[in-house]
Amino acid sequence: MKFLAIALASSVVLSASAQTMPNPQRDSHNVNVVLPAPLAATPDNVAKLRLPSGFHIVKFVEGLESPRVVVISESGNIYVSSRDAGTITMVDGNGKKTKVLELENVHGMAIHAGVLYYVTIRQVYAAPLNPDGTLGMSKLIITDLPDAGQHVDRTLAVGPDNKLYVSVGSTCNTCEERNRINSTMQRYNLDGSGRETFATGLRNTIGFNFKPGSNDLYGWDDGVDWMGDQEQREELNKIEEGKEYGWPYILGNGLKNLYLTPPHGVTLEQWAAKTTLPVLTWNAHASGMQLIFLKGAGLPSGYDGDALASMHGSWGANPPSGYQVVRIHFEGGVAKSITPFVDGFLMPVKGGSGWARFARPFGLAQMADGSILLGDEQNGILYRITFSS
Q: Looking only at Cα atoms, what is the longest distance across the chain?
């Protein structure tokens, strides 16, 4: 087996890629490392963005520091986390920014019944929202999430069952975890008690949410790296209680990972038989982040109940993938297709890696009027997307 370890430099591009999962006893494969150069979000660049007919995108807030997760309270206040800065910032309807929390590695957030839940690498907190949008006294409700390793971006949500769901990613690309809590979806009571493992075999499901009007939980699971440009494809999973989703032994739409052997004498075929496959897949290495479901007010017909997911962008593919927002279309409560919704942040250029970007999309939220907020971690911008017929 030949396996290529490559320094992450924007000028490094290796040719060829594996189209199927390689056999370590027989095959070799090359890996492309392509780092698009960061650009400013100039008016000319923003004007080049492509959206469906009738949709418009403008800058709403600038000057944020590495914005990540975005949530909106019932009163309309916008909350933006920054793992790099260790802050949560409140933004009002006029775009005024107020720092409401400082805490190292704060990342995922969820608002439920007037309480903001937020998570760091190993801890979850709950804080009541004051009338002015600031946070009341925070309470530490979960203290024992495992070490994160490679995947430190914890996220959470409150389900229709009034339970708190916490995604705990894997510590690695592909490995056999020592802690059974890693690569799972955990479920708790709202006070942090009663921990139970809801689902397993999820490599890193940062973006997940419940479809309104149902108990259906959907999550975007980021696929493994170092398998070539086209593998492993990203997964949209319907995450159900007690189900196994395959990682690290079964990947994507059923690829058997020949580099690992399941424990306790279980064969790859047996592990595949108990694996729940994704409902849809998307381009490998696109790196899905926040996922939201849309309410139809202010949007054209056919968008109510659909989902959007932000694609942070690849480093290990040529051409690069991601750097966009995708729409997940549902029919009869079933996910039917994934298509680009906001595209054009990525562009070919001369020199360097041959590519440049003017955003790394992350946060998504929908305002009461139906408009959609999109956060760019790279340039510290919140965009606002509106529709007019």
A: 64
Residue 361 to residues 34, 271, 291, Cα–Cα distance (Å) = 18, 35, 12
Which of 60, 95, 92 has the alpha carbon at shortest distance from 76? 92
DSSP states of 265-320:
T--HHHHHHTBPPPSEEE-TT--EEEEEEPP-TTS-TT-TT-EEEEE---SS-SS-
Mapped onto helix, strand or coil, the DSSP state of residue 46 is helix
Residues of the chain with pLDDT under 70: 1-29
CA 368 to chain CA centroid, Å, is: 23
pLDDT tens per residue, range 207-223: 999 999 999 999 999 99
Place of tokens 């389900």: 159
Q: What are phi and psi of 44, to 5 degrees?
A: -65, -40
pTM of the predicted model as reported, rounded to 2 decimal places: 0.92
Please, what is the Cα angle at 67 between 65 and 70, to 5 degrees?
Answer: 145
At which residue do the structure tokens 């992350």 appear? 362
Counting Cα atoms < 13 Å in the Cβ hemisphere of 118 gives: 29
* pLDDT tens digits along 287-309: 999 999 999 889 999 999 999 99
Handedness of CA 37, 42, 44, 49 (dihedral sign): positive
